[in-house]
From TrEMBL:
Organism of origin: Propioniciclava flava
Function text: The lipid II isoglutaminyl synthase complex catalyzes the formation of alpha-D-isoglutamine in the cell wall lipid II stem peptide. The GatD subunit catalyzes the hydrolysis of glutamine to glutamate and ammonia. The resulting ammonia molecule is channeled to the active site of MurT.
Residues the record lists as binding substrate: 126
Quaternary structure, from the entry: Forms a heterodimer with MurT.
Limits of the CobB/CobQ-like glutamine amidotransferase domain: 4-199
Pathway: Cell wall biogenesis; peptidoglycan biosynthesis
Top-rank lineage group of the source organism: Bacteria
Family (UniProt): Belongs to the CobB/CobQ family. GatD subfamily.
This protein's name: Lipid II isoglutaminyl synthase (glutamine-hydrolyzing) subunit GatD
Amino acid sequence: MTVKIVLVYQSLLGIYGDQGNSKVLARRLQWRGIDADVVMVEPGETLPRDGSIYLLGGGEDNAQTTAVRELRRGGELFDALGEGAILFAVCAGYQICGHTFTIGENDEVREGLGLLDVETRRGPVRAVGEILTTWTKPDGTTSQITGFENHGGYTTLGSQASPLARVEIGVGNDGGGTEGAVQGNVVATYPHGPVLARNPELADYLLQRALGRTLEPLSRGADEIAGLRRERLAFVRR
Ligand code: GLN
């Protein structure tokens, strides 16, 4: 079995390095002896419907509008999620999953994909800088997530969406203490980094959700990853 990871619209949502998330997911599968295939899809092309994980990344306002139009036109992402695929969305990708978001200086309201019960509006100050959050994992234990946030839009969660994590340092969703959103098969967050390179436990959570089974922790790469995490935690708390 090959796990298909679908990297959606790099030409629109690929300017913050979030494509690295696809590499982390693929490599952590391969290290476990599971075949992985990263499929890159551009606007105008048909998304595969048999992907296990779909990835959306950060991008600029106008690109968000185009991405929504293209994803709605094809409809394959909705089909795949209906079949149980996982969507992991970062920043602009997160915002477009909501009901609405705003773009440009005049804050024009745009329709999102409606996959998350969230709304995004321009906030009082642009959130730029290191972010540190605490993520409570499904087993009740916690893990810290580090990354870099860079967004003008502030996201408010409705009752159907649950926050992914609590903010320790940074702005997160809207400065109110929550970060990211989880609803059904959709997991969304603001941090770049790429966030899954900095926080491989989050990568493994997505893989477990996509595969529907528990994966053994990996010792491979663990020292290097622990070193990087120590460095980033020290930096954000400086
Ligand atoms: N344009 C969006 C905002 O500023 C998303 C930015 C991003 O993806 N980094 O809120």
